[in-house]
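Practice problem: predict the structure.
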Amino acid sequence: MATNKERRNDSNVSDKDNLSLSDQSLSNIKYKQYPIEPKVYPQRWTQLAYLSLLALLSDWICFSLAASPSSFANAYPNSSAADLIDIFLFTNVASCFLVTDVVARFGLGACIKGAAAIMTAGCLLRSGLPEMSLFANAVSDTGLPAASGMAETSASLVQAVADVLPDSISDLISADTLTEASRSAGLEPYPLLVLGTILVGFAQPYFQCTPPMLSATWFASNERATATATALNFNQIGIAIAFLVGGQMAQNEVGIHDYFALITVLCALVTLGTFLQFQEKPPSPPSYSEIEKLIRGEKEPPFLVSVKKLFGTPGFSIPLAAFICSISITNIVGTFIDEVMERGGITNQLGIDLAGAGFEFAILLGGIIIGGYVDETKQYKSVTLACLAATMLFVIPLGLTDHMLGNEPVLLVMALLGLGLSCGPIQPINAELAVDVTYPSDETAVESVQQVGGNLVSALLVPVAEWALKQDYEFFKQVRPLDSDIRGDVVLLFTVAAATIIYFTTFDSPLRRTMADSEEESLDSDDTTPDVSSGIYASEERGASQAREFVS
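Answer:
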C-alpha cells in the first residue's frame, strides 16, 4: 500500500482518494498553515521553580505542627494542631471553587503573585506583626541611613491597627489570652493563628490547581507530565520539611515562635522573587495543541459550566477516580504515620519523622521519574494500572504482622518508600490524562475538580481509617507459619486501590490533546497513526476517525 507521502505526490490520484487524504490529515494541514512553530523558553524552569516552591511553603505551613502536636497543645490549651489543619483544608476546598474564574479573569501571573502575597500576610499573622518592630530594631542597629526611624514607624503601625479594631476583636486577640509561657515567648493569640491559616488555605489552590495550566502554557508536549508532577507533588516536600524541621524546632513555646518566624522569612523571600521573576506567558506557544487553542480564540466558561462540561466528556471520570484514590491513600498514610510506624516496631520519634519525610520525598521522586516516562510514551493507562497494582502490594506490609516472624521494621520502611514511589505519580499522571481527554478544556478547572474531589473524599475517609486502625483481622490461625493479622485501615486502602483498578480498566477515550500535538508527524508515517487511547499504534482507519472527531 502506498504511503501518505506517496499519495500526496501522485498527481493522478482520484477525487475519492483526495477526500480520504483530506479526512486523514485535516488538522495536520491546518498546522502547515500556521505562521508560528512551537517553541520553548528557558524561563519555563523559573516558572516551575517558583510555583513548586510556593506549593512547598503552603503545605509546610498547613502541616507545620503535625510533628509536634503536644508542644502546640501546651502553648495553646484547649486547641490542637489538627484543628488548624482542618481549618486549612476546608478553606482550601472553598477556594478551589473560585480559582478557575479568578485565573481566567486576571491571568496566571497576577493570580500567582497575589496568592503569594496573601500567603505571606497569613504567615505574618501567625508569626506576629509585633516582630516587625524587632526586625526594625535589628536593622536600625546596623546604622544604615535607610533604617532611621524604621522601628518607630513599625511600632506606630502596629498600634494603629490595634486602635481601629472593635473592642471585642481587640480583646480576642489580646496577649492576655495567652499562657504566661506563650506570652513570654512572643507567640500570637490563637485567633490570629486561625486567621493566618485561613489566608494561607485560601491562597494554596492557586499553586495547587494551576500546574497543568503552567505545563500547557510553557512546556513542550514531551515535558508536560514531568512538569506537572514536579509542581503538583512538591507540596509533599513541604510536609517532609514539617516533619524534619518542625519536629526539631517546635518543641516548646520559644521554639514554636522561632519556627513560625523562619517560615515567614522564607515565604517573604520566595514571594519577592515571584513578583520580580514570575511571568504571565511565553512569547509564543510551546506545542501545536496550544497553537490550536490560540488560533481558535478559546474563551474559558465559568467554573460551574466547565464542571458540567467536564463530567459530560467521556473518560473524564476515570482519571478523576484514580486521582482521588491516590490522594486519599497518601493523605491517610501521612496522617497516621505515627501509628503505622509504631505497630511495625519503629517507636523513636526521629525514626518516625525520617520515615515520614522519606515517604513524601518518594512521592515527588516517583512522580518525576514515572512522569518522564509517560511524557515520552503517552502510556497513561498501562502506567496507571501498574502503579495501582503496586500500590495494592505495598500497602499490605503497613498493617500485616506474621506472628511467627514478628515486627519487621526494614520491610515496613521499604514498603512505605515503595508506596510513595508507586502511589504518588498517579496524581500528576491522571491530572494530565484528564486534561488530555477533555482538550481544549480549561486546565485549571480540571485540576480544581480533582482537588475538590480528592480533598473531600480524604476528609470523609480519615475518620473511617481512624476507626479501622483499631480493627484487627486474624487469618490462617491454625497454620502456625502463616498465622497473621492485618489492620483494618490497610484493608480499607487495599479495597480503595482494588476498586479503582477495576474501574480504570474501562478507560478507552481518545487523547485529543496528544492527537493535536502528534498529527504534524502523521503524514510521513506508513499506514499507522498513534492510538492515543492506549499509547500503541493502531490502524489508519481508526486514526483518521479520531482526527475527524477532534476537528469537529
